[in-house]
Structure formats: C-alpha cells, structure tokens
Amino acid sequence: MDALCWNHPAISLKPTQSSENHAFLTPKSSSLLFHCRAVMNSSNPESKPSPLKIQNRMFILGMGFVGQFFAQELKYSGWAVSGTCRNLGQKMQLEGRGFDVYVFDANDPVQDTLKAMKYHTHLLISIPPDVDVGDPLLHHEKLLRTTLQGGDLRWLCYLSSTSVYGDYGGAWVDEDNPTNPLSQSGKLRIEAEERWINLGNDLGLSTQVFRLGGIYGPGRSAIDTIIKQRSLSERQQRRARRQFTSRVHVQDICQALKACIQRPSSRRFYNIVDDDPAPREEVFSYARDLVEKKWPGKFDTLSKVVEESDITNGRGRGDKRVCNARMKRELGVSLVYPTYKSGLQSILDQMGDEEPL
Fold it and tell me: Which residues form the NAD-dependent epimerase/dehydratase domain (predicted)?
C-alpha cells in the first residue's frame, strides 16, 4: 500500500453508530437479560440452567487479560461464557465470577474440554503459540477437528499479533502487506493463523484473524508500571527499541470482536490497533507526567530510571506503523481510545484520588 494510511493524522474517518449498538449481544427482552444475569451469578448450583439453553454461548480458549475482559462484557449482556485457564487457582477465581472454566494442559487435553467447545456457538482463541509445540490446541488438530464436527459452532476468531509483519522501517502497513516476521514467535503466529483459518473453513464457520497491537488497559499500562515501581519485562524492552509501536486498548479489542460477530465478514484478517503508533519512550514520558500531576513527587524518581534504563536503550530502530482502516471501514468500529493519551488518561481517572500503595 502507499505510505499514507487512513489512520494517518492527515486523514479522518467519521465514526459510525454500529459500533455503539451491538443488538446481537442483548437478549430479546429485558426479562431474559435479568434471568441470565441472575442464574449465572446464583450461588446455588442447582438453580443454574445448562448453557445450552442460552442462545449465545462463547468459549474462550485462554482466559487471560483480553479473555477475561471480553468474557465479563459478554456475561453482562446475557451470554453464557466458558473458557480455559492454566491452573486450579485461576479456575476457582473465574468460576467465582460466574464462568464455566476448564484447566487446559496442552500436553494432555481433556476430552471434556473439547466436547464443551463443540456445543458453544462462538469460539475465541487467545492462547499464544508455544516455542516447542506451536499452537497448543492445533498440536492435537486431528482430535480437535473430529470433536468439533457436527457441533453448534458458527463463528471463530484467532487473536494473533502485528509482529507477523516484521520490520518495515517505520512505513505504514496494512493487511495486504506481505508478512515477514523476524522472531520465532511471529513465525509460529503465521502458521497458527493459517491452520485456524483452514480449520474454520472446513467446519463451515465464519472465521477471522485479529492482528493485535501492543495490548494495554486497566492494570496493564505504562501508568501501572510506574506506580507499581516495576522495570519493563523483556518483551516490553524489545518493543522499547522500536521507533514505532502500534498499540490498542483492551476495550477497543472487545468492541471490535463484538462488531465482527454482528457483521460476519468474508475477510480473513483485521489489524486491531489505535490511530497513534508512537515510540514507547514517548508513551512512558506522557504516563510519567500524568502520574506526577496527580501524585506530585511520589513516583517521579523511579519512573525516570525506568525510562532511562529500559526505554531509551536502542532508541531509533525502524519498525512499522500499522493501519486500522479496514477495521473501521468494514467492521464499523469507532475507537473508544484512538490514542495512547486518551487511553492512559482514562486508566488514571479510574484510579480515583486516593494515593496507590
């Protein structure tokens, strides 16, 4: 594509109303919505209906940061939500919030987990590939394919990463640009994308791949890193060396998923990013200013150390700016947080005025 993208500052797309009103997420009557909420939060297991009695049923493979955020939004809208986690502690915590949860072991998938997926209407895959086995589920693809055939699934979405594009020296890229991942994880993502699309096609499902930018949100942001007095993770440090990093707020990922369910598309790939790819140094500098203004002198020293040691090291390496025009145009998504500035401000506002511990 040309160097100029639709989400370039020089170009503006008008917001659409469709992203604000996802009627498919709401049961047909308010009484049904109340019933779904009540039974899913009931402390009496015998009063809970089978998820099969609820029209919309989502299974989330990997109830991590994005999975839990999306599950909660669906639950509030009357969906039955099930999913997988890594251990019994997470299982108990999630079940306490009203979700049916299965502990998933990639080396020994339990048949009951696969059978449960079969009788859900929608499937979201939010598990990154493993360096040894690739995609954990597709490591057992034959069993997965056999189990899911003839079930209730009609929609599948795989959450991938913009890392699949590789290095474009700071140029704009969209879904039509060739993929050329530099990392092993990016190469495994490409393989997983292809295999999930093939599986979805073979099962006759509406199948999409979302390529996500760097994910942030409440509890997982530059502001949280500064307040919690932590250094950046190794993965964050790698991103810090890039000239541009495309990112997306978790709430905008969720609204894109809702739009995709509402508007089944023949397209396979969508970039899910905001309008403002920016250096991580710039993002942390802005976050530090917000925190300093709210709590003067409390976190200033450490945040500067974080920036100097983790952010500026390796500054200037070219990368890419990821275009989101297809997401806006075809899914009708109007971003809640089009820039990191609006997203970070919202996260800070939600913290209230009390000084964090």
Answer: 61-272
> Is residue 10, in this structure, part of any structural domain at all?
no
Total domain count for the chain?
1
Range(s) of the domain holding residue 166: 18-215+249-275+320-337
Q: Which residue has the higher pLDDT, 325 or 16?
A: 325
pLDDT tens track for 268-291: 999 999 999 999 889 999 999 999
The pTM for the full model equals 0.82
Residue 241 belongs to some domain of the structure: no
Length reported for the chain = 357
**For 26-59, b where at least 16 C-beta lie within 10 A, e where not — what string?**
bbeeeeeeeebbebbeeeeeeebeebeebebbbb
Residue (of 298, 323, 182) closest to 244 by Cα position: 323
What does the DSSP 8-state code read for residue 27?
A: -
CA 280 to chain centre: 19
SS3 214: strand
